[in-house]
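Before the break, one more example. Copy the sequence into your notebook; we will annotate it together after we see the structure.
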Amino acid sequence: MAVYLDYNSTTPVDPAVLAAMMPFLTENYGNAGSIHSAGQRARSAVDSARESVARMIGAKAREIVFTSGGTEADNLALFGVVGASHRLKKHIVTTSIEHSAVLNACQELQKRAGPGAPEVPDVEVTYVPVGRSGVVDPEDIRRALRTDTILISVMHANNELGTVQPIQEIARIAAEGEIYFHCDAVQSAGKIPVNVDRLGVDLLSVSAHKIYGPKGVGALYVRSDTPLSPQLRGGQAERGRRAGTENVAGIVGFGKAARLAEERFAEDQSRIGALRDRFESALIERIPDVLVNGAREHRVANTTNLTFAGAGGEALVIALDLMGVECSTGAACSSGTTEPSHVLLAIGLSRDDARSSLRFSLGRSTTDAEIDHALSVIPRAVERLRALSPHSVNAVSTR
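Here is what the structure looks like once it is written out:
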C-alpha cells in the first residue's frame, strides 16, 4: 500500500478540477487578451474563476491578481509594496519562521539596498523570533515597528508546523500604525476560515496546488487602496499589476478548486483532524521519546511535525518511502539542502533534533486504512534507525 502524507507539499488534482480544465487545454484555447470569440470565451472563464477565488477568501474579484503560484504572490507583495513607496528609508517586519518565498525576498531587498545600488532606497528588515510554540507574539511585532516601517508580512499557517498565527491581532497593530500588512495564506486556505476583511489584511497570498488544483497558478489579494508596483513588465494583464498571457486552464482549475474547498470545508477538516489526532497520539504511544513540534492547540487540522530523537530525518524519509509511506523533513522547496529546517531551529530545537524531525500532512484522500498502515511501519523504521545510529542512546536518554 502506498500512503501519501505530504499534502502540505502538494495535493493531487481533484478529478472535477481536471475535468473543468480540459476544455481549455483542447478546443477552448483562446488568449484571454484577444477580442474575438475564442478570446472572449477564455476571458469569461478567467473572470468566473476570479470570482470563485475571491469568494473563497471574502474578497472582491477586482482585488485578485493571478500569479504563477504562492512564491510569485509573496514576491509581488513584498517587492510591489516596497517599489510603490516613495520613502527613502523603508523597513519591513516579518518573522523567523516564514516560508522561504518571503524570507529570501526580504534578503534580496536588503541586498539591493546601499551604495552598490544607489537608485534603490535602503531597505531594512526585522525578523521577529518566535518561541517553542511556533506562534509569534503580536506584542513582539509591535515592538519591532519603527517610524519608517511600511510593511508587515506574517504567514497565516506555518507550512512545517501547521501553527496558526494571530493575524487579526497583528492586523490591528498594523492598522494603528498605518502600515500595510501582507499574509501568506498558502497553507491555511481551505483548512481554516480565511476572510480578508475579518483578518484585516491588505495583501494575501494563495496557491492552487495546495487545495487540489493545478501547480503553476496562484493569486495575490490586493486591497483596493493598496499601492503595488508590478514586477513583470509587458502588457496590461491583471489590471496592469502582473504582465503576461493568463494561464487560462490553470486559472479555471484554481477557480474550480476554490469552489470545492468551500463546499467540502467542514466535512474535510472534521474528518482529517480526527485522522491526524489518532495518528499523532498513536505514534506518541508506540514510540519512545517522540516530541510534537509547535503548539498542538493552534494548528491546521491536517499537520503534525514530530521529532524522533536518534533517527535521522532524511534516512527515515527514505526508509519509510521504501515501506510505502511518503512524508517529508520539511518544506519541499528546501529538499536537498544539508541544513536543518530554519523553522525548527527558530523554535529552539537543536540541530540534531531538527535533523531528526518529520512533517506528516494529511489530505482529502487520506483513509483510515492508510493511517493504519503508516502506524504499522513507522515504529519499526524508527527503531531500526535508532539501533543503527551511534548517537541513539545518548540522544534518547538525555531528552
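Residues 393-399 have pLDDT under 50 and may be disordered. The longest strand covers residues 89-95. Try to locate both features in your own notes.
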